[in-house]
Amino acid sequence: MAVLSRTVASSSLLLTLFVLFSSFSEAKDILVGGKTGAWKIPSSQSDSLNHWAESTRFRVGDSLVWNYDGAKDSVLQVTKEDYVSCNTTNPIAQYKDGNTKVELHKPGPFYFISGVQGSCEKGQKLIVVVLTPRHRYDISPAPSPAELDGPAVAPTSSASSLKGGLVVALGLLAWGLLF
Ligand SMILES: *[C@@H]1O[C@H](CO)[C@@H](O)[C@H](O)[C@H]1NC(C)=O
Q1: Distance spanning both ends of the chain, measured CA to CA
Q2: 90 CA to middle of ligand 1, Å?
Q3: Domains contained in the chain, CATH given
């Protein structure tokens, strides 16, 4: 009886941890500016998209979504140089469908400016920095089998220590369930 209730308790704890890992690893669609119609010339510094981006976490696999009037505006993905100088002549990618979705497929900075002449200069631009999985400040997605094999990867931050602790906890729970 005691063994059974311990098993049930362990199972529900495992399920809870699984749900936790799943929610952390889920790729998200992130609406630029957090609301529709946010792709515009900002009315103030605190209204700027970069102000919004600073308080938003972007992970590899997430997608940015822009809602705007495709007849009047566009989204250009550009280099850092073209971002700084607001140069719209040679973008990496150009979108004008009004409902643009761009996947953040790798870590590092992504630069976007409006394709409308003069709008970038007035602040309609966005830098999104996608953190590398190793340097994230939260719990990483479910660990790979290699990571479960042992402490091959030395913890480099408190985040990985926390993850290591969770992996150990999961291992102990699995052990407790089996024996
Ligand atoms: C914009 O970039 C293009 C090349 O991508 C360059 O030829 C042009 O001189 C640049 N314009 C300005 C104003 O810097």
Answers
A1: 15
A2: 8
A3: 26-178 (2.60.40.420)
